[in-house]
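Q: Structure tokens for this one, please.
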Amino acid sequence: MSMNLPLSLLQYQGPMLKTLGSIALSSVLPKKRMKRNPEHIDDVHVVLPTPPPDLVNLYRRWCTYSVLTENGNAPLESNQELPPHLFSQFALSICAKQLKQTRYKLSNILNQGVGLTVHHPIPMGEALHVTCKMLEIKEENNRARLHQELHIGTQNNPHCYTASFHTLFILGKSKKDKRHSPSIEGYRRVGKWIVAPNDGLNFALLTGDLNPIHWISFVAKMSPFKRKVLHGFGMFTRTIETLQASEAEPIKSINVRFISPAFLNGQLVSVMLSEAKKEGERHLALIDQNGKALMLGSVEI
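A: Here is the predicted structure, written as tokens:
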């Protein structure tokens, strides 16, 4: 069960392709980097044209494709509004602009987690006003952990969505952290979706994130994962759509951390939700066909 998207979608991915090209060039021709980060990291402000309707429609279709809920609910339809998680199509290029102010090599970046809070919907046809802020840079144990935040809105309402990014740069050898297997006792499955073999290529065409480990087999074999894996944002967006379909309501906020990659082998992955609520939030987990946690977090609906 899969869908095929046209290569013509690349025409909308100029900013991301430019960013990837810049990262690739800097790894081949590295420039002299500063030894310390500046005391202040400037905000980055960008105004983006309204996302093309055909891109939005295909993006929405991919995010809801193969989603099945335990209660039989169909994915929500919101053709008059942008999908809030569409920021995955432009966020990385904007965050990268800010990261160029730091001392870190962008080719070494690792995405550890992401969050989204929806304050107000954005109607189709509106230009997007985006501001990227650096909230924290923390270095310890030869690791640099960064927290960036995007404020996404329109000219009349600049604070419609807030998206957060947690990234990691490896600076050298470090002591290994003791990892504990997360428990999902008391969780129930609310839905599931299929990780199709071509989902990596499809999501790359939709967002411009053409990292070859997501769609080129021989390159993926040389990666630490040894095979093609889905983008973290891909897991994030389909999980959101599964939760919204199950609960028949749009999410208010969601925060996740990526635990393991989802292999592109046609497997069925499950979205799990805790029963107990804490201040309106519930814990969530995305697990693979073997019960291994791929993503953990919390959600408020």
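A few notes: The chain has a mean pLDDT of 92. The longest strand covers residues 128-140.
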